Amino acid sequence: MWSSGYLLIAKKCAWALGGQREGSELNMCIPLCFQLKCNMLALCVFWFLLWSHVVGAPKKQLEPAERLWVQLQKDSKETKKKAGKTVGNRLTKLYKENKLPASDVSELLQAADEAGLEFSNPIPKKRKFEPGKAPELGEAEPEEGCRDKNAARSLDRFLRKNHTWKDLYWAKIPMKNPKKKANDMEEKWMPFLLPHEWLPDYFLQSSPWQEGMPEEGSFCWPAGKFPRARHEPGKAALAQIRSDWDWNCKYFHAPQWNEQKGMCWLCKAKPENWREMTTCPAWERQEQSLDKAEYLHFLADREKEANPLFILPSASNDTMVPDWMHVLDEGTGALAAVQILKELLPLYPGAHVDERVSQLWEHIQILYEEQHWPQDKRLKKLTLKDIVKPKKVPELDGKAHEVRHLCPLLECLCKAKGLHEGSVHQKAVYKVAKYCSKMYKCLEEGNLLELEKAGRKFVSQYMALEAEATSADESEVKLWRSKPKFHVTSHILDLVSLGHNPKHSWNYRDETFAGCMQKLSFRRGGKFEPGMAAEKLLLRWMADIPFLHFAAAIQLFQEP
Which superkingdom is the protein from (predicted)? Predict the structure, then answer.
């Protein structure tokens, strides 16, 4: 039918045009036929789309304005379950980490439930607030009374549904009230998790027998009885006391750096000779070391009381291990880094000192990208005030881990500006940067032998630059100024020479743990009580770790 219709139109068009030959008339009408065919197809498609839009969608007024011509298929049941599980796990993690309050988690869970996601919803189906008062999308705050006041209780019960922990044990503990006088003590209720209440349930299962076994030796063990009280003294040894200098002075009465009777808790160094005892060989420093008896006599001579921990046989001043983080990352490493940056600053282009600082900062950013350092381990800023401080010795204003990841780049910065081929002074500055960078690289690699060598050269070269600066100007106190932490750095290197890895005693793990505890115990409202904060912290930990394995805990502890 279509072909005959086209032929009829072609003949009529040929007659209308007044052509003399039939063949030429047909050839002239072929383009017109194609045009009519395309127009008819377009007309058919238009009427089909119009019919599907009007007749095929009678409920258009109930749908959103941006309607798709081709509707997507609905998600399958398995897809909904998977999406719901992902949402539930993510919200649970945010609540456990105390990043979201329980009321917000409750509202998000209810919204996900209404959206059709399938998951184990800890919030009861019966709402604790009226749906009409719930905040609409885009509103800043919900109306008063619309939040679920029991959301935290519901979430805590749901998360601790299958854990093996016993109920918290509460006891009154004397505590200092910061709002009152120094000697005023008050008894406050504090919660505890008691291990001896959890161990019986732990050892009833088969898998724990490969992780830990109770030690024989008690009187109750051969008789097959469970002890009612602690039957034997605990067997343990205090291996390390990890803290910074200020903590050692405050709680262990270690000497201050400017005390005339002595400024070190590990040796007999004094303010007038600590520089000589820093650069001397390790065996000379060992001859001047303090044992436990000498340190206790040193405390009595300064009219200081010994900490009760020193009653323990293994506890002594050697147990107070110097910390790499406070001594180097926040001390000598930061001090050397800012002095090197100060030497490099005039070598960068720029009409003004601020422009040169900007060029230096861009160079550091390029090195960061080449080394693929994560963003959280980089310096957040670098200004002129960080390098030049008018009234005190400049020290890099950055966190400890930021300095630890900047020091390995110092050698590259100096070599890029040709300090290794410059004057005698510039070569000395380059050596400080070289040995400092090598020291930090060996620390990450665990190469203790090269770490000690690079550290010794770093300390001696830095103090040589200090001697050069003071010989040129005796009143110079800011240029290449060394601090007593260089002396403690030598003690850390002495421990490295004995096979001690500084990572085994640094405070990063302790500081990280304290930061995590602070975030978890952050109070979002209500009356402040020490016991309530501790209870929330323990409950979150119990919810996060429903069953504790010794093997997993030991493996986590051994990670660097």
Answer: Eukaryota
300-304: which pairs have CB atoms within 8 A and are 24 or more residues apart?
301/261, 302/253, 302/255, 302/259, 302/261, 304/253
Give yes or no for a contact between 311 and 495, defined as CB atoms under 8 angstroms apart: no
Rounded distance, CA 37 to CA 100, Å?
Answer: 64
CA distance 545 to 539: 10
User: Is the CB of residue 357 less than 8 Å from the CB of residue 427?
Assistant: no
Residue 15 CB neighbours (<10 A): 11
| Cα(53)–Cα(8) distance, integer angstroms | 35
Tokens of residue 121, six digits: 């919803």
Q: How distant, in Å, are the alpha carbons of 176, 189, 308, 507 from that of 184?
A: 6, 17, 21, 31
- DSSP readout, 327-366? IIIIIIHHHHHHHHHHHHGGGS--SSHHHHHHHHHHHHHH
Q: How many CB atoms lie within 10 A of CB 476?
A: 14
Burial (CB count within 10 angstroms: exposed 0-12, middle 13-18, buried 19+), residue 291: exposed
Structure tokens at 364: 């550091």
Q: Would you give the DSSP letter of residue 289? A: B
- Cβ-proximal residues to 220 (8 Å cutoff; 6+ apart), any chain: 226, 227, 231
CA–CA separation, 519 vs 95, rounded Å?
Answer: 11
Average pLDDT over residues 442-468: 94
Q: How large a percentage of the chain has pLDDT more than 70?
A: 67
Instruction: Yes or no: say if 327 and 508 are a contact pair by the CB < 8 Å rule.
Output: no
Q: How does pLDDT run across 350-388, given as a tens digit for each residue?
A: 888 989 999 999 999 999 999 888 888 899 888 888 888
pLDDT tens digits, one per residue of 245-276: 888 898 899 999 889 899 999 999 999 999 99
Average pLDDT, the chain: 76
Angle between helices 151-159 and 102-114 (to 10 degrees): 80
Give the chain's length.
560
Q: Which two tokens stand for residue 213?
A: 């076994």
With tokens 């065996």, the residue in question is: 283
pLDDT category, 175, cuts 50, 70, 90?
confident
Token look-up 């110079």 returns 476
How far is Cα 300 from Cα 313, in angstroms, rounded to an integer?
A: 19
pLDDT of the residue at 521: 73
pLDDT (tens digit per residue) in 413-444: 999 999 999 999 999 999 999 999 999 999 99
**DSSP strand E in 26-168: where?**
none
Q: Please give the structure tokens belonging to residue 63.
A: 């749908």
CB contact at 8 A, 521 and 179: no
CB 266 within 8 A of CB 294: no
For residue 189, the 8-state DSSP code is E
Q: Is the pLDDT of residue 134 over 60?
A: no
